[in-house]
Amino acid sequence: YATCPFRFFAARVLGLGEREEGSERGELTPQARGLVYHAVLERFYSNLPEAAWAGADWGPSFDAAAGAVFKENDWRALGIYPLLWESARLDMTARLRGFIQWDLERLRAAKLRPRLYETRLQGAPPEGAPGGVPWKGVADRIDSGEDGETFRVVDYKTRPSARWKNLAKQAAAGDLHQLPFYAELAGSVLGEGWSFGGAELLFLEVEEGEERSAVLSADDWGLARGSFMKILAERVEAIASGRFPIRPEDGERGHCSWCEFPTVCRKAHGPSRERGLRAPVPGV
Q1: φ, ψ at 264 (rounded to 5°)
Q2: Vertex 26, ends 162 and 208: CA angle to 5°?
Q3: Predicted local distance difference test score (pLDDT) of residue 268
Q4: With contact defined as beta carbons under 8 Å apart, do 179 and 216 qualify?
Q5: Model confidence, pTM
Q6: What is the mean pLDDT of each run of 10 residues along the chain (284 residues)?
């Protein structure tokens, strides 16, 4: 809804469903690539021997994890040509090795360990959130400190984006949802006595000069929380009231380029587009 109210309407109200992308022109889709990345990282960290945290070679553990996941998701399962799959596999393997090397070094330095993986989170609305709407999500990873008191939420992203350069600003504007939701819900999964120590987006495919992570500190979330909850309540009220205007954003990076419902959207109709852009949308 925050991206485009009409897109929310088409998927969640009309129930049109998201487009089945599959593999286009024999290429590995971004969705399939992301699923493979997530699966390898979950299997690697959940089976990493204690000696690796002390500096032992983690290569064999990675080879075992990657080999198993690539075998389960081969070119037949993903519907692409064998040669293209082999090229993608080699590229993903190299990128995963580089990411894990970086991630392990920083985890050791911060005295953190991955604790939970692909964890389903669900609960009643936290204090300040609109009532009657349960919160839920799936956290890619939850790390905990050696002090046994603080946890950190981690969400993997394939590529960095300019919109993630200031997560505190994005959260306060209601444009960042995953990390705030996980920050509020993860403590209940870990049990009593745990406090939120921050959240991060970790990027798996970076080029030279690009940052590997974007951080939402506990203090930043504390400052942004009130504004986030206010905008969230306004959006829930707008949905309940049936307000779903179109919100076009064209161009290579605009959300219209990957929308599943271009054939039912009236953004090409001048009067409809103008009305949609004028319509008040909470947080915009």
Answers
A1: -110, -5
A2: 30
A3: 78
A4: yes
A5: 0.87
A6: 90 77 62 93 96 94 97 83 90 97 95 94 91 91 88 95 90 94 91 91 94 96 96 93 88 78 82 72 68
In degrees, to the nearest 5, what angle opens at C-alpha 10 toward C-alphas 7 and 15? 140
Q: What is the pLDDT of residues 34-46, one digit of tens each?
A: 999 999 999 999 9
Residues 124 and 181: beta-carbon distance below 8 Å: no
Phi, psi of 150 (to 5 degrees): -115, 150
| Residue 191: exposure state from Cβ atoms within 10 A (0-12, 13-18, ≥19) | exposed
In angstroms, the CA 77 to CA 73 distance is: 6
**Which residue in this structure is represented by tokens 């979950």?**
42
Dump strand ranges (E) for the chain.
Answer: 112-123, 135-145, 150-157, 195-203, 213-216
d(C-alpha 24, C-alpha 38), whole Å = 21
> What is the C-alpha separation between 94 and 87, in angstroms, rounded?
11
What would the two tokens of residue 171 be?
């959260």
